[in-house]
Amino acid sequence: MDSGYYQKLRVLWHELGHFFANQYNQQHYQGEGTEELVIVRKDVGNQRFDYEGATKLRNYVREDVLRHPAAIIASSAYGPYLQCIIYGQELKSCLEARHTGAHGSADYEQINSAILAATGHLAAREPIFAALEQHFARIKQKPEFSQLSKVDIDDLVQSDADDFKVPLEELHHRFDFFFPLHDSYYRELVSTLETILKPWLR
Q1: Under 8 Å CB-to-CB from 182, ≥6 apart: which residues?
Q2: Do 14 and 36 form a contact (C-beta atoms < 8 A)?
Q3: Which helix (H) or strand (E) holds 164?
Q4: Which of 50, 58, 48, 2 is nearest to 25 (CA)?
Q5: What is the rounded CA–CA span in Å between residue 37 and residue 31?
Q6: Residues with Cβ within 8 Å of residue 195, at least 6 apart in sequence
Q7: Domain definitions of the chain by residue range
Q8: In angstroms, rounded to a whole number, what is the distance separating the alpha carbons of residues 185 and 174?
Q9: Contacts (Cβ under 8 Å, ≥6 apart) of 9
Q10: In Å, what is the CA distance from 119 to each residue of 60, 125, 202?
């Protein structure tokens, strides 16, 4: 087992949250769906390294945020959600500003950017993050996540390469059972975020 195995496994669970959300966005909110999921090694100094992931959308353009900011915010949150649920962490350990060292700091910044792009200011930031916390508390004990955690994904992170793609067809094959089980909860979050954002939308 290579030295980065556990880091890569954590990153994959995190990125799977974005993968699931992108699928929901494609089904319900005119989203583009996932084009590729990659895991890359990064140097963090003092001869140490970590891994980070990226779940890239097909044909993403800035107008996607303006078309459906609530869905973009939800998809940004679902990476930290899944990581925290699988590893039994508090949400702030996976969704917080960069200086805290949270692995979801890029998602935190993307949520702020989506709020700013959609409304022109950050007045909605506090209620948005409160809603994200409330939704996390509501879903983290749902039985579909227990089923999810039992899926074996070890072979998907066994690559010796520093940077590698995770095959999307394998993700669909192993995880398609999850989508109908969690669909209504995802749409519930997007609806809540829409309600919060509506008074401020440009």
Answers
A1: 20, 139, 142, 144
A2: no
A3: strand 163-166
A4: 58
A5: 16
A6: none
A7: 5-196
A8: 21
A9: 153, 154, 157
A10: 20, 10, 5
Cβ(95)–Cβ(85) below 8 Å: no
Looking up tokens 């998602």 gives 107
User: What is the torsion angle, in degrees rounded to the nearest 10, for the CA atoms of residue 78, residue 134, residue 129 and residue 33?
Assistant: 20
Are 75 and 21 in contact by the 8 Å Cβ rule? The answer is yes
Q: What digits encode the pLDDT tens for the residues 79-94? A: 999 999 999 999 999 9
* Residue owning tokens 């939704």: 135
Q: What angle do CA 183, 126, 113 make, to 5 degrees?
A: 75
The answer to whether the CB of 34 falls within 8 A of the CB of 23 is: yes
Q: DSSP labels for 89-143?
A: --GGGTSS-GGGT-TTHHHHHHHHHHHHHHHSSSTTHHHHHHHHHHHHHHHTT-H
Confidence of residue 42 (pLDDT cuts 50, 70, 90): confident
pLDDT band at 183 (very low <50, low <70, confident <90, very high): very high
Q: For the chain, how long is the longest CA-to-CA vector?
A: 52
